[in-house]
Amino acid sequence: MGGGFLTLLKGVVAMQPDVELKTKNIHLMGIGGAGMSGLAVLLDQLGANVSGCDEGESSYAEKLKKQGIPVEQGHSVDHFEKYNPDIIVFSSAIPQDHPEMTAAWQRGVRVSRRAEILGIIFNARCGVGVAGTHGKTTTSSMISLTAEMAGMDPSIAVGGEVLEIGTNAKLGRGKYMVAELDESDRSFVYFHPEIAVVTNIDWDHRDHYMTFKAVTDAFNEFLSNRKEGGKSILCMEDPGVKALFSDYGVKDGVVTYGWGTNWNWGAADIKHVDGGGARYKLFCDGQVVDEIELKVSGEHNILNSLATCAAAFEMGIPFESVKRALARFSGAKRRLQKIGQVGDILIYDDYGHHPNEIKATLGTVRQIFKGRRIIAVFQPHRFSRTAALYKEFADALSYADNAFILPIYSSSEAPMEGVSSQLIFDAITQDRKSHYELCGDFDTLLKSVCRVANDGDIILTIGAGSVGTLGKRICETLGVLKGEK
Question: Partners of 287 in the beta sheet?
């Protein structure tokens, strides 16, 4: 271990809020989303006057209202008179020709992307930035909980609620900030991390990245923005990360993790626990550290925990604190989250919206619930992603015993001619067709799922859109049918 884990830093640094933000009226368009709501919390805790608006309602928006942050339903130029904003912040879901943004430019009001404002907060601290096509929410949540339980009082900005902390964002008094950084629109290049974590690199968001090389170029720029003397923590089990490592000469300050003992951090003797969880032997530079126990399941989460061990070491967190936090961590909201149980039917929900994420999630469910039938309810996310990956989605859904496919959730993206969920259904092999069903709306879906569900089944709702609200409705409907309500 070369001296073991570093001792916990005693001098907890209380960072002064950036005056530029603290003294401003800041209005957030798309405030109801996971990322924007988290930024709203941080700005409010900094001392800024925060307001926001969104077209739809969300649990995040409701929480903001309870915290005293005004949230308007719908977008309107009237918000300028009501809140007199100095800065308008927009999410990636807001088109740049939106009337409210056009009015801001006409009035000389500063217009900023979410990443620009979050970057001001992040870059003023010792930032731990977690990037990757998949797994960044869980990994950043693990690191956040580990730092929190170690008494480091970190600032955090995560794309999903950290269940044990009870929020997706907070402004701590410690020196570190842990943030999930989004590669979808290349906005992660605004950040200058002390510790940069890359979980994996896939060719996703094809509306923004025309080639896979464009994706790796962006990740290379992200790593090159690391603060001097910082570290890059890379998953060497991922082909995309390996390409980044070899093709761009990314080697200075690199910490690696993966299976076995050949990496800086490795896992071996892995045991998956029936009903959920895993155990493995943790290695550091080829030497056994200890056995790690996880409450969460799946090989992807073992890799996420290795990234957490590596980041925690660089942050100076004692190993016993890391071990205790990983054993307690139960996942981020909407990451294979148990929604309920009706009789012997279990209902879970997951945010997965890429074929590789769906395969990993369904594979994990198979590992922890051996021999039980899996019913998947899938809502494709974005027309552009469906057009590019419909064959891969069809293949991923074959990991379930039955699958119900909902219409595409547009996420403010304009429809594309000829692109619908029918593409996925048509790509399914003929011998599997009878196990799949296209459902035109939630009500039809509820009837269909409840018709086929039997005791012992696992029902999994999956997707990045409104499908996340379906789990509770499935529980309620099944409960009525089975006489439990």
Answer: 284
Q: What is the pLDDT of residues 265-274, one digit of tens each?
A: 999 999 988 7
Beta-strand pair 345-350/458-462: parallel
Q: What's the pLDDT score for residue 98? A: 81
Query: Which are the contacts of 412, defined by CB distance < 8 A and separation ≥ 6?
Result: 93, 94, 95
SS3 231: strand
Burial 31-57 (b: 16+ CB within 10 A, else e): bbbbbbbbbbbbbbbbebbbbbbbeee
Average pLDDT (146-151) is 96
Tokens describing residue 216 = 């790796």
Mean pLDDT score, 403-407: 93
What is the predicted pLDDT for the residue at 28?
Answer: 94
Q: What is the pLDDT of residue 204?
A: 63
Name the E strands within 7-154: 25-29, 49-54, 71-73, 87-90, 110-113, 126-131
Asked if residues 392 and 423 have their Cβ atoms less than 8 Å apart, the reply is: no
Residues marked active site are found at 136-137, 180
Classify 316 as helix, strand or coil. coil
